[in-house]
Amino acid sequence: MPEGMLGAMVATGVLAWGLGLSALGAYAWRALRERAREDITGQWIAVTGCDSGFGQGVVGELIDREAHVIALCLTQEGADAALHRGAALAPVLDLTDDAGLTAVSRDIEAACEGRLSGLVHNAGVVLPGFVEYQPIGSYRRVMDVNFFAPVLLTQLLLPSLRRARGRVVLVSSVDGIVSLPGNAPYDASKFALEAYADALRAELSLWGLRVSVVNPSTMRTPLAMRFFEAHRATWEAMSRLDPEGSWKDIWSAEWLEAYIAFNTPQLDRIAQDPVHAIRDVVHALTARRPRLRYLSGTAAKTVFRALWLAPEGWSLAFKRRLIHPRPPVTK
Predict the structure, then answer these.
(1) Which of 186, 196, 259, 294 is catalytic?
(2) Cα within 13 Å of Cα(61), Cβ side
(3) Which of 208, 145, 138, 136 is nearest to 171 (CA)?
(4) Start-to-end CA span in the chain (Å)
(5) Is residue 87 part of a domain?
(6) Banded model confidence at residue 271, pLDDT cuts 50, 70, 90
(7) Which tens digit of pLDDT belongs to each residue from 246-265?
(8) What is the pTM of this model?
(9) What 3-state class would DSSP assign to 87?
(10) Which range of residues forms the domain containing residue 275?
(11) Is 92 a member of any domain?
């Protein structure tokens, strides 16, 4: 083998090893940095959507760390459970009620004496269905809960967050980086939340406030596990609005039942323990150096990261395969 070729091979090998070791070292250094946590004992943190799922889990984790938790709930049952778990306050309200949000923000400010260390926007609603049978009210309802409520509540609590140099954590979704068929209102609300988070992060950084976004993939929560069954409610709502609509020729009741029956079992196969997202939310609140974004769950870190970064044509081809069984397609 010529000396020049041998030298090139050696140099390439050294370079590859060097890059590999550098990457490993960077990963190890990042892991060590992220392990450092702040003591949140006695700090006040408000969390929305605490009736079940992520919110309920986050409340428990924060209470275990001796934080003073304000658990915003939709139902009295959820509030009673949060108080029993140890929450300092558990207001019951509809997040789409602006007057209610304003009143609860005053209660929060009074409780924390104007120093709020964390605000977690976890509450959310999903109204799935394909765009042709989505009533416009679905979009308005989902945007009200998933986008407008976090925007208003953040604005109302900014003075208290600024005094405490606090943190804002927005629970988005993998649907906030990759929109999927059959869920346009929810996806649109999460894309809007992502844009808001980007602007908020830059603006609040002037005062040292941190803003993190958490993007969970499918987790075993009540919201996620009812996803395909919830298509039926949307279809029926559109049927009441437009009972003789031509959309039924394509998205028939028979097709709907076949779609639900085929896809519902898939949830059991892909859904993961909510602890993945809960840990990421808690890390964003307690780490000395929280991440800007957390992809929570195996699918988020693999499939959705790939779709997020892939050419749009590849992503489209993948998404088309998710529509099964196909509705009748006529030319």
Answers:
(1) 186
(2) 21
(3) 145
(4) 63
(5) yes
(6) very high
(7) 999 999 999 999 999 999 99
(8) 0.90
(9) coil
(10) 37-321
(11) yes
